[in-house]
Amino acid sequence: MDPMNISEFLKSIGEDPCREGLKKTPERYEKALKDLTSGYDENLDEVIGNGIFDAESSDPILVSDIEFSSLCEHHLLPFYGNIEVSYVPDKKILGLSKIPRIVDMFARRLQTQERLGAEIADAILSSVKPKNVDVKIEAEHMCMKIRGIKSGAKISTFHSREKGSESK
């Protein structure tokens, strides 16, 4: 990313990029975007590592209130909320900390809420092959809240997978 482009943008909206408060803005913006899209530098195998274990039962596992934030690919504005992941193990389980790590890896990419949920469900399905996995996302989208319709509505999506199925 060229910080000069950010300086040009600042000029185009009538700002002075040499003003005290804006001098380092291009570099800060670049650093922030790299952090917000750092999920492209990760892959599922690395995130899971040695975090797959034998299942001692087939009782459901639920990890709820996983906070996330992501950037909407349509406007490059944040959307954020909570994710709930549940699955019924077959023979293997994930270490509990791996589920929020999987969420974070996919959330730190340009996203739609629908694709984010599908990618999380498919990742868990492919990694431990549970009997089923469900992902619920409830999020607020800044592209809706601060522009356009100006609504703070929460959007909920649900994603279900069964062993032997994958998202298309």
Structure report:
With 168 residues, the chain is α+β, with helices and mostly antiparallel strands. It folds into 2 domains: 3-36, no CATH class; 50-162, 2-Layer Sandwich (GTP Cyclohydrolase I, domain 2), CATH 3.30.1130.10. 34% of the residues lie in helices and 30% in strands. It has 6 helices and 7 strands; from the N terminus they run αααββββαβαβαβ. A 5-stranded mixed β-sheet has the order 5-2-3-6-7. Strands 1-4 form a two-stranded antiparallel sheet. β2 and β3 form a beta hairpin. α1 (3-12) crosses α2 (25-36) and α4 runs antiparallel to α5. The protein is elongated. The two termini are 32 Å apart. The model has no long low-confidence stretch (mean pLDDT 94).
Q: Any chance you could write out the topology, listing elements then pairs?
A:
Elements lengths: L2 H10 L12 H12 L7 H5 L3 E3 L6 E12 L5 E11 L3 E3 L3 H10 L2 E2 L1 H16 L3 E10 H4 L8 E9 L6
Parallel strand pairs: 2-5
Antiparallel strand pairs: 1-4, 2-3, 3-6, 6-7
Helix pairs in contact: 1-2, 4-5
